[in-house]
Amino acid sequence: MNEVTILVLPDGRVSREEAARFLGYKPKTLAEWHRLGKGPKSRMVGGRRFYDIADLREFAGQAA
Q: How many other C-beta atoms are found inside a 10 Å radius of the C-beta of residue 47?
């Protein structure tokens, strides 16, 4: 299994780009999933979409 290094902010959130890297997808895929109401939970902060690292880990476990 390959290790992926991502930047996790102190409150546990990551950007869409970091979330995509963590999950092994492109950021556009996560944007499309959001549009379709699929994929991991996300939230808007300051006009940007972020994902909680715990939600990404849970999603990755379900997707595997």
A: 5
Of 17, 25, 15, the C-alpha closest to 45 is: 15
User: What is the distance in angstroms between the CA of the first residue and the CA of the last residue of the chain?
Assistant: 13
- Between the alpha carbon of residue 39 and those of residues 3, 10, 20, 22, the distances in Å are 21, 23, 11, 13
Q: What are phi and psi of 32, to 5 degrees?
A: -70, -40
| Among 64, 12, 7, residue whose Cα is nearest residue 41 | 12
pLDDT the model gives residue 3 = 77
Could you tell me the maximum CA-CA distance found in the chain, to the nearest angstrom? 34
pTM: 0.86
